[in-house]
Amino acid sequence: MNLNQMVQLATQVFLKHAYPKGVPSAIQEMSNALAALDSEEELLQWSRLEKENGRFHLRLGNHAYPHMKLVFLLESKHPVFYVDAHDSHFNLPPNVPGHEKLIALRKFNSDLKKEIEKALLAQGLTIFGHNQPTQVKTGHRCLGMTVLAIDDEDQILDMLSIIVKSMGAEFIRATSVEEGRRMIRGRKTPDLIFCDIMMPKESGFDFVNWLRKEGYSVPTYFITGLNIEKIDRDRVTAVLQKPFTAKSVMNIMKKLRKSQSEEAGEPKQAE
User: Fold this and answer.
1) Which residue in 133, 172, 80 sits closest to 250, CA to CA?
2) 9-24 pLDDT, tens digit each
3) Residues 86 and 187 in one domain
4) Which CATH number covers residue 198?
């Protein structure tokens, strides 16, 4: 299949699961217009295809929430798909009316995201976080390094685990800010931290504020699907945009190991 065919297939799978009782006319019209595009160039220049930081979005929604997106990015002209619930950019305090409905909506969107991505995977499409990176070369250049990752999505933690361990480093996972704090208090300080921003109860910003208040100077990277231009990066090393690649994580680890070796006066490692 070419790119157009894969995007069309992914769209049909998405709509089947997002609208079990029938696709709204406006969304069906978008799907029909997508099917009429003749070339990859037409697709990538299509006005209905949103573009941001190398990612391409189709805002298809679902029967309960209009802003859910089908997203793909191109790596060597091969699309990697995922579903973005697009519901984490706003919050309501627990004491504000509507908080319970918001939590229920997020749970619904999260379950639907998993359902759609599983169906896309069954069609042979490459899904971010589900397909284990086959091009990651294993090695031991980061032996002795410990990496902590905090994210409420298991598939993100699974992917990071594969990449980190392939570099010879120890991987520690946490699914919440509180669990991340316990991991740091209960064992030696990690060499590197990856932390999601939007999580239930406490955010990545809360974690980083605690980390710096406690005096830890661990290199910390936000991993997020939010627009990186709108993120306060004063207290983190940098921001890693979701969906990230194995190469980007490996480069961060190699850069840190090089810095550690130089500080320790060790001889340079062969690339």
Assistant:
1) 133
2) 999 999 999 999 999 9
3) no
4) 3.40.50.2300
Give the strand order in the sheet containing 170-174: 170-174, 146-150, 192-196, 220-224, 238-241
213 occurs within a structural domain: yes
Measure the CA–CA gap between 70 and 10, rounded to whole angstroms: 8
Domains held by the chain: number = 2
Give me the domain span that covers residue 71.
3-122
Q: Read off the pLDDT of residues 186-244 as tens digits, 9 standing for 90 and up.
A: 888 999 999 999 888 899 999 999 999 999 999 999 998 777 776 777 789 999 887 77
pTM over 0.90: no
Per-residue model confidence (pLDDT) at position 271:
47
Quick check: is 72 in a domain? yes
